[in-house]
Amino acid sequence: MSRRKAGPSANKESTKSASRHVERRIDIRTVAASAKVSVATVSRVINNIANVDPALSKRVWEAISKLGYIPNNQARALVSGRSRLLGVIISDITNPFFPELIQGFEEEAVAAGYETLIGSTGYDLRRMEACVQRMLERKVDGVAVMTFGIEEPLLERFALKKIPMVFIDVAPEKKGFSAIHIDYDHGIHEAVQHLAVLGHRSIGFIAGPTGLHSAQAREQAFRSAVTSIGLDLPDEYVYVGDYTMEGGSKGAEHLLKLPGPPTAIVCSNDMTAIGAMHAVSRLGMKIPGDVSLIGFDDIGIARYVLPPLTTVRMSGREIATNAVRTLIASLKEEDSRKAAYEAVTTRLVVRQSTSIPKGSLAGLSKRRPARSKK
Hints:
The protein is built from 15 helices and twelve strands. The protein folds into two domains: 85-182 and 318-344, 3-Layer(aba) Sandwich (Rossmann fold), CATH 3.40.50; 183-314 and 348-359, Response regulator (Rossmann fold, 3-Layer(aba) Sandwich), CATH 3.40.50.2300. The N and C termini lie far apart (123 Å). Helices cover 47% and strands 15% of the residues. By secondary structure, the protein is α/β, with parallel strands linked by helices. The strands form two sheets. A seven-stranded mixed β-sheet has the order 6-12-11-10-9-7-8, sandwiched between helices. Mean pLDDT is 83; it is low at 14-23 and 363-374. The longest helix has 18 residues, at 8-25.
């Protein structure tokens, strides 16, 4: 009986099978043998348990790198009782401010040995509830609520599981809950003072949603800044928006159609300001010639709109970094409130959407050429 020779496809298949067989054999015991340590030592190193000799830890990580071993995160979670997973809940993934925040959060978390689980609420209570449920199912170790608002009944579920949480601005008075404070006053005072120095005496404001603490804080900072330099602020000069471009467009149109419209508008965020820009153009006006405009956040596209937007810089990356570090401090059973970092500062970034008010003496002297002496 003749035997058939194995062809190239059979050889390839056997090679793949052998490769899979070798891959299966690279487990924690293989790592232990390569590093010449016990399986228990490898387990402690992988799970970041502190009482491991640094020299042994180095040998284990070198063996892991050499063998290409990928630790089983689920098994690690069973051993350590921790998922090594941090949740981050944001308001609106379509707002360019939040991708910067998420990127900073993930980079800081990965550097500390954690993965991230992201949820976007879209300012919708049902989506918020779904985010909470998903994070509880995945057994997150901690949660950063970066929504600029608090839904306490839903978040109480994390408290019942004793999961540490960090918030923006204000946190509920519970153990393991802490807040990252934002210094809104500094940047917004700089913005109002900048407009006053240019000669503006009537300044409007497009606020954020009334139910959000961040919106209230920004509006209060604006009112305080206007009062501090002795300017009047008529009620009709404050329009309640919703942090969106549509809200900014409606707000600017409302303010600029008043009998005595403001010569400058400060917006509660950059998305609002970009919407306001469209309304100004639609009304046949120009920025900054007819009205000066200032945003808040300094999102990436703020410098690329026309004209480039003067805005108050608030670093999403800095907020995220502080949030991760505060959560990790809480997980180490430190006092999370003591571990909270310094307030995130804000500052004015001057670009080309602000100038002297139209028709002011400063504007006239700037445009009118000096007469030559005879």
